[in-house]
Structures are given as structure tokens and as C-alpha cells.
Amino acid sequence: MLLVHCPYCEETLPELEFTYAGEAHIARPADPSAMSDDEWRDYLFIRSNVRGPHFERWRHLHGCGRFFNAVRDTVTDRFLTTYRAGEPRPDLSSLKEAAE
Amino acid sequence: MTALTPAFIPGPLAKSSALVVSLLAPTGRFSLRAHAAVLPALSRAIGVDLPSRIGARASAGTIEVLCLSPDEWQILVAETDALRLSKGCASIYAEAPHSLTEISDREITVRIEGPKAADLLTLGCPRDIGRLGEGEGCRTLMDGATVVLWRDGKDSFRLDIWRSFAPHVVALLETGCAELAAE
Questions:
Q1: Quick check: B69 and A65 CB within 8 A?
Q2: Is B123 on the interface with A (CB under 8 A)?
Q3: pLDDT at A33
Q4: Start-end ranges of CATH 3.30.1360.120 in chain B?
Q5: How much is the average pLDDT of B77-91?
């Protein structure tokens, strides 16, 4: 089982308490009606699907109930870090160094 | 579909040499959601200093408060004091906007006591029970159902279970109670 660190509870807890909530840092466009159909499709459906460190959202559903962001390596399933929603993306190169 | 309504009569549910599982009498319950800025005013109205660390508890008189989330608290109160608590919060609503919802009938509470109480919880709860301090609490999972777990002592726990999930969770507790005694 994966252990996930919840940045709100400040505890490392079992995966079962959490749910996955898709890719992180996808902001809703300010004016959707000004967008073309293709741009809107990209916003709704097109995701980066990276191989390696992936910025993604998780929710501590059976706990504090908060959404937060995580960087998880999609190859090894290893969590490089988790951070609160609304915080900027952490620097990937320093995270990789810290993980090694 | 046939739905049987369990009676939920307070009293012992399962008993063995290892532990005792009993259903507690109904109590007043509230869910409080509020912003951190209005906490001092709410603490005065409720009469308990609301804890801000997740998992921390506070109590005064018949009121018990558990912090579940940065902006969410579970409040237990004797049924006789429930009205006073909700009126007290309503009176400061204009200065301290919040959401206080009565959820007394949403859950039932089961007490688990005995030398193997923590072992019983490990049957359905993925958390490391040993890391939950005495006098703390948390919202977690029990055999797939969301529950609120209160640790009152080394071998004494309370489990708030949503009514509709209770027959399922209690069945596991009863089985576990017998199994742990057979070891």
C-alpha cells in the first residue's frame, strides 16, 4: 500500500484514506465563450499523461477532506512531495535530487 | 429491496475475554464549519477553546470537540445542552459567520474497551492505531465506511459510525471480538 503525506493533517497515512483527482495545475479559462472548440476540448480532456514525475491532485477523502497536490513518479509510484492546494509547483530538479 | 431497520438499543453488543463492544446512548452531535478568523468568537459562544490542530480534542462540561479538518469540527454535547449550544452560536452569527449543522441522528457511537481494543480496530482500519495518541481522534475508515475514531485511553476507543453503515461495521466488530478471544 502507498503511504501518502497529507499536507493538512501533516501525517503520512495509508492510501486507502485518499482518492486520486486527476492532473494538477489546470486552471479553468477566465472566459470560456471566447475560446475555440479545440481550445475548450483541450482544456476539458487533453492531459499530459507524463511518464515520470507527474503533478496531480489527491483528496484526503476519509480524513480531513481536503484536496491537495502531489508529485508522483508514474514509473515507480513514488511520491516526491505533496503540497497544499494553491501553492506554486515545486521545483522538479531539486525534488529529484532530494529523492536520490 | 427490503431494508431492515436495526433497533440500535444502547447496551453491550459483544463481549469476550479480550474486549467489550457496547453501543452508547444517543447524544447531541453537531458539525461546525467556520473560518479561522471567527474561532475566538465561536470558542466563547460554545464555551470550549476550539482546537486548530487536526486530531486534537477539547472539552468542557458535557461538550466535546474534535478538530477534523482546518475548518471543520465535530461537537458532541449532552442532549439537554444541545439547544443552548445551537442558540449560543446562532446569536453571534452576524459577527462570526459559520455553519453549525445538527447531525445527532446521523451516527451511532460504539465503545470498544479491553486489552485487545486496538487489535480489533486493525481488522478494518488502515491507520496505524498506535500512532493515534490518547485523548486524540481522527476521521478514518473502518471496513470501507468513513468513521470518526476517538481514543480515550490506551485500551478505550469510541467509534462514530453512520447509521446506514452501522450494521455492516458492527458485524465485523462482533466477529472480531470473538476471534480475538479465541487466540
A1: yes
A2: no
A3: 94
A4: 9-25+105-181
A5: 94
- B138·A63 Cβ contact <8 A: yes
Q: Could you say which DSSP state residue A16 is in?
A: G
For residue B72, which residues of chain A lie inside 8 Å, CB to CB? 64-65
**CB contacts, 8 Å: A16 with chain B:** 126, 141
Rounded mean pLDDT, B26-40: 95
CATH 3.30.70.1520 residue spans of chain B = 28-102
Q: Which CATH superfamily is domain B9-25+105-181 in?
A: Probable tRNA modification gtpase trme; domain 1 (3.30.1360.120)
Interface touch A8/B138, C-beta < 8 Å: no
User: What was the pLDDT predicted at A9?
Assistant: 95
Contact A70, A56 (CB under 8 A): yes
Q: How far apart, in Å, do the first and last CA atoms of chain A sit?
A: 21
Q: How confident is the model at residue B148 (pLDDT cuts 50, 70, 90)?
A: very high
Quickly name the fold that domain B28-102 has. Alpha-Beta Plaits (3.30.70)
- Evaluate if residue B22 carries a pLDDT over 70: yes
Q: A13 vs B127: CB contact, 8 Å cut-off?
A: yes
**Phi and psi for A74 in degrees, rounded to 5?**
-75, -10
Instruction: Please name the residue that has the C-alpha cell 481488522.
Output: B123
Looking at residue B2, its pLDDT comes to 61
Distance between CA atoms of residues B137 and A1, nearest Å? 23
Q: Is the ipTM of this complex over 0.90?
A: no
